[in-house]
Design goal:
Elements lengths: L7 H20 L1 H8 L3 H21 L3 H18 L5 H6 L1 H17 L8 H30 L4 H10 L2 H17 L3 H17 L7 H25 L9 H10 L4 E8 L2 H8 L1 H15 L7 E6 L2 E7 L3 H17 L1 E4 L18 E4 L2 E7 L6 H17 L5 E2 L1
Helix pairs in contact: 1-9, 1-10, 1-11, 3-4, 3-11, 4-11, 6-7, 6-9, 6-10, 9-10, 10-11, 13-14
Length: about 400
């Protein structure tokens, strides 16, 4: 069960980060209120600017759900600050506002990031309207259920909770489950916003909405920046650092380091035999094994079936045992292929073969920096060493 909670780390870090930010805001509340009381209008304008910047930035990186979230926060803030036609109705229907706001955050967690100016944008406006209608209908149903249900201890206890607390509790549990099951920073920021929204309604947080939305916008912006970093420097398939990250590391390396180039043996033949889906599984398997490298090695996906490991401040002699351990661990691992092999026209009528266990092997070329050698030159030498490992029978480490 816990193995499937791949979003646990991201969720915990996001919630801890938001908690720290709100704790600091509450701690210094009296100080900034005294110093900035006469500049409240300026702070509000700055907040609108932050909302616009975050919305545009998140849209630029195709995080349309965060963009919509910022627009909704802006609409709520505008409704609170100005006497709009619907402002009085919202004040009189605070329960609807709370339930609808929670429902909108839940809705954003269920949909995917799509283009805003498209048919998907129109569909989302319809879903937002439906969310408001459902919230209104639920509250009406909760009010009607009171006189209709028989008087009982259970119904007497549950009826006060039915309108808000029960649906909000269900939604936050669903949001938490989604955030834990998926490694998505967007889901973590939606979960954080939902929790804060509920805490404000039940007055467990007593900050003004300007400060609350300000903290949330900073949190959203940080999430999008971190997400953009991973998008730029992480390989989407394997989760390893990408070639761009390798180039960045090269700029910070000292005079002493070791570079290893790794390649999956007969990967093209494996792809042709079992298909690209199984080939992707092989890449993920090898990447997972390489990610456990010891000795301070940093792993990167170089491209295709090639990987690079850099050992800063290590010689070849110090790095070889760790590379040999990786090679052996991958060679000893039996991968179960459940998908049938590709068939010729004559074989299509035959029964599909059962499960098959196959082994994956890698070849490794390794070298260390020599003299005033540039990183590109060391990388090229490691590639030549990899070629020698291939020529000498594969599934070995060559210098």
């Amino acid at each position: 069960m816990f193995a499937k909670l791949i979003g646990l780390k991201a969720t915990l870090l996001s919630l801890i980060g938001a908690t720290v930010m709100f704790a600091l805001t509450i701690h210094y509340q009296s100080i900034y209120q005294a110093q900035w009381h006469d500049k409240l209008a300026l702070i509000t304008y700055l907040l609108y600017g932050m909302l616009i910047i975050t919305a545009v930035f998140s849209a630029q990186f195709n995080r349309s759900r965060v963009t919509l979230l910022c627009l909704l926060w802006g609409l709520f803030l505008t409704t609170s600050d100005y006497d709009l036609p619907w402002s009085k109705w919202l004040i009189a229907n605070n329960q609807w506002l709370t339930l609808c706001g929670g429902g909108l955050l839940m809705l954003l967690a269920l949909i995917k990031d799509r283009g805003l100016i498209s048919i998907h944008g129109v569909a989302r406006l319809i879903f937002i309207a439906l969310c408001g209608a459902l919230a209104y209908g639920w509250l009406m149903l909760a009010d009607m259920a009171g006189p209709m249900l028989p008087k009982h201890q259970i119904t007497t206890t549950l009826l006060p909770l039915m309108s808000l607390k029960i649906p909000l509790a269900i939604m936050v549990l669903l949001l938490l489950w989604q955030s834990l099951r998926q490694s998505s920073l967007t889901l973590t920021t939606l979960l954080t916003g939902f929790i804060v929204w509920c805490l404000m309604h039940f007055q467990w947080i007593t900050l003004p909405w300007t400060a609350v939305i300000g903290v949330l916008v900073i949190h959203h912006l940080l999430i999008v920046i971190i997400d953009a970093y991973y998008l730029a420097y992480r390989d989407d398939l394997t989760g390893l650092a990408s070639r761009r990250a390798l180039n960045q590391l090269a700029l910070s390396l000292g005079r002493k380091y070791t570079v290893a180039m790794l390649d999956i043996d007969h990967f093209k033949k494996f792809n042709d035999t079992y298909g690209h889906d199984i080939g992707d599984q092989v890449l993920k398997l090898v990447a997972a094994k390489l990610g456990k490298v010891k000795g301070g090695g940093k792993v990167f996906r170089y491209g295709g079936e090639e990987f690079t490991i850099v050992f800063p401040r290590k010689t070849v002699e110090q790095s070889l045992p760790h590379l040999e351990e990786l090679r052996q661990a991958i060679a000893d691992y039996g991968m179960v292929v459940r998908k049938p092999q590709r068939k010729t026209k004559k074989e299509r009528k035959a029964k599909p073969p059962g499960e098959k266990t196959v082994s994956v092997q890698i070849s490794i070329g390794v070298t260390s920096r020599k003299g005033k050698q540039q990183f590109e030159q060391a990388l090229k030498e490691a590639d030549l060493a990899l070629y020698r490992a291939k020529k000498s029978g594969r599934n070995n480490v060559s210098e």
